Description:
By secondary structure, chain A is mainly α. Chain A is built from 13 helices and six strands. Chain B is an alpha+beta fold.
Amino acid sequence: MPPRNWADYLAQSTTHALVAALATEALLQIWRVRAPADRLALRMTGLLQPLLVTPALWLCERRQGEEFRDRWVLFASRRWEELSVAGSSAFSVFLWVVGALGTALLLMDLVPLLAGQRRGGPAASAAPEPLRALVEAAAAAMRIQSPPLRFVETRAPALFCQGTRRPGLVVSRGAYELLDREELRAALSHELVHVRQRDPALSWALMGIRACLFFNPAVQVVARAVARDAEWRADECAGGDRLALASALLKLHRAGLAGPGEALRALPFAAVLTEPMRRARSQDVLARCRRLMEPVAPEAAPLRKLRIGLSSAAFAALFFLVT
Amino acid sequence: MSAPNHTRRGLAVETLRTVFGLAAVLAASAAALSALDAAPAWIVGESRAVRRARTVGEVERRLRARLVLPAFFPSTLAWPPQHIRFTVRAPGAAALSIQGRDGTPRLLLAQTAGPGPIPGGLVPEAAVLDRSTIAVGARRGTLSRIVEGGVVCWELSWEQDGRSLLLRSRGRVDELVRMARSAREVP
């Protein structure tokens, strides 16, 4: 029986994640799943495969033998070891390339996040009474306890939810003054959905999965898609005036673009790195606004539990034959 | 009364969509994975059953069997082998392609790990010119003169300890016979 080694594990994890991601996207299309909550649940099914199923399969003795590989396996990544690329085996080249790509994708999100945590935010001050009343009214409408509110005296527009144990809202003076009353109400409702769904905890869990599977680019991309689904779910579940939420999104995004980016542009090559990311963020905001312009939220897909169960079992069975 | 019927029908359609959609995606994934698995063998022009190893140790580990190697090894041949190819389907077999010191292909040593013929994918096809029986130690072997790729070669095949062995050489016949008679499992 050949000895297990880490290169085989990395290759299997990457292949499983890639196949799960592509198959999940195909299923989302075929099953016509449009509701963000359903999309998030199915994508999580695919995301958890390399985290839970791959290690379990890795420990399965039956999959290790040469005879099994020869007779039953659909795809053995070691096959690519027999092919040379620039003096190295295609298997090694594949591992190095995906490892570098996965790590780069993780660092692109992790470094700014950790830098932001280290810097800390500006000091909090007492929130204006109208803002406090709006938060309490929106929380009452959602039948949740009013969360802690942190008001920060900064011109930069910021309105988000944070905290894993007891999530709270952070609102900056810039955002408070930028948005009109209806927009502010819609944006606060959006953030309260994040509070209700405990999305900050989900966000940290996703970052944990990404850090564990840092070498796996498919996991990095799917985790981002799940985070985007959580945003879309908050948009759809916020209720109230959808156009006001779209307007608030656009205003906050535009104000954010005009902010710290100017200083970065003075640096050489900064535009090469920042422009594609800004464009991607703008595209995402546009897509959210386009969805919010629909008069009603998309319907939840039927048979959600059956679909999640079937796809999980089917992926696990397929990956038994992918080494 | 029509609404529940419609819902039931809609649910049936969605159930069918769920099952057939998943089956289609799984089938497409399996087909794509099989094609990716076959691609390396297709690129190097080998049968899918034939694999490559880097060292004799690796092929012994993967076949879980010791290889039979000649104790007599002419100084005109280069070691280690240029290519080591093997199949794992029972009985398991390996073929070592050995170059001369001048870099030209000189010798092919093929063997099974148990009783059974050597798979065709490991030994290139050749036309037999003539054939005779010869003693390989206490065993009987078949010595043939063959044409492989337009070159006349000697081929000696015999059975030893329940295995099939084959030596094909572009060198001298006396060297070939001496190598066969000295062949044994390397401890």
